Amino acid sequence: MAKAMSFLIILFLLALAPLCLCLKTYGGYLYPQFYDHSCPKAQEIVKSVVAKAVAREPRMAASLLRLHFHDCFVKGCDASLLLDSSGSIISEKMSLPNRNSARGFEVLDEIKSALEKECPATVSCADILALAARDSTVLTGGPTWEVPLGRRDSRGASLSGSNNNIPAPNSKFQTILTKFKLQGLDIVDLVALSGSHTIGNSRCASFRQRLYNQTGNGLPDLTLEQSYAAHLRTRCPRSGEDQNLFFLDFVSPTKFDNFYFKDLLAYEGLLSSDQILLTQNAQSMELVKQYAENNELFFQQFAKSMIKMGNISPLTDTRGEIRKNCRKINTY
Ligand code: HEM
């Protein structure tokens, strides 16, 4: 009898084995329905706080979109960017690409506190960043996509990762492409995601070199349209006024559209890293032309590339944590 029972138990366990394996394969993957049961209102709450913030200040859409990029390129999409300095943590907010530049952290705080009220310790800051980036794109007229979810938050930050992995606006084409490839992104992703510069602003300090001394010979960047350059020089002098703001796409600065690519064709891209997509590589030049001509194609690729970027090395399952406050790691 005992023998028969243990045989039956073994049979039963064997029958369950494929199920366990199958469940396991979900481990490590993100999926859009992640909060459907644990926090059904999560997406609605993020959207409403983002919408309010963008209504208060249209530029906020651009700032939130950029935060997801600056998060994902450093240790993966794990909200490491949102940590303030404390204890052994040196905040990524102090890095060269972020200092005096990355903004929108108060909006993340507002979203997080609304979510903690609705479903405590459930929705990660990393997922909030991914959702806020999508909502910002939609609110300004861009494409929508379903955001894969289930990221968890890091218990550390990397200042050096932030300085090294995020490309600089005066980097060479190959350097920028290499930094994208190191994240598993390709040239198509690079061009499509650079299309984010259809909204938002840049400081004078980020493109000054192009106006006065692009290659060290005292001459401006000749791939910058001359009268546009003269106009930029009026508020971006040789020295000082570093923080003066300029639209990245001067035609429709708060609208997510393909004018960014049309600007590049007119040699009116603001950053050197923008204009070189047209001038330094045949394949990216072709993509710029296609996106300038076909807004739908740009939108489709942008959505795909955002999902790809959002999938960079997430912390899942038992790795990382769900922070209670996006600025601090949890204390136990
Ligand atoms: C390809 C390499 C890239 C470089 C070199 C670059 C560089 C920059 C720089 C220098 C600024 C202006 C910052 C300032 O002066 O304060 C900026 C702004 C911005 N970037 Fe990028 N970026 C790149 C790619 C991306 C990507 C992939 C995204 C999003 C997916 C993005 C989204 C934005 C947005 C939306 C803004 C405007 C932010 C605001 O107005 O607050 N950028 N970027």
Automatic annotation (TrEMBL):
Entry binding sites for heme b: 197
Signal sequence residues: 1-22
GO cellular component labels: extracellular region
PROSITE patterns (alphabetical): PEROXIDASE_1, PEROXIDASE_2, PEROXIDASE_4
Leading EC class: oxidoreductase
Pfam families with a match to the protein in the record: peroxidase (PF00141)
Residues engaged in binding Ca(2+) 1: 71, 74, 76, 78, 80, 92
Cofactor note: Binds 1 heme b (iron(II)-protoporphyrin IX) group per subunit. Binds 2 calcium ions per subunit.
Cystine crosslinks: 39-119, 72-77, 125-326, 204-236
Gene Ontology MF terms in the entry: heme binding; lactoperoxidase activity; metal ion binding
Function: Removal of H(2)O(2), oxidation of toxic reductants, biosynthesis and degradation of lignin, suberization, auxin catabolism, response to environmental stresses such as wounding, pathogen attack and oxidative stress.
UniProt similarity note: Belongs to the peroxidase family. Ascorbate peroxidase subfamily. Belongs to the peroxidase family. Classical plant (class III) peroxidase subfamily.
Name by which UniProt lists this protein: Peroxidase
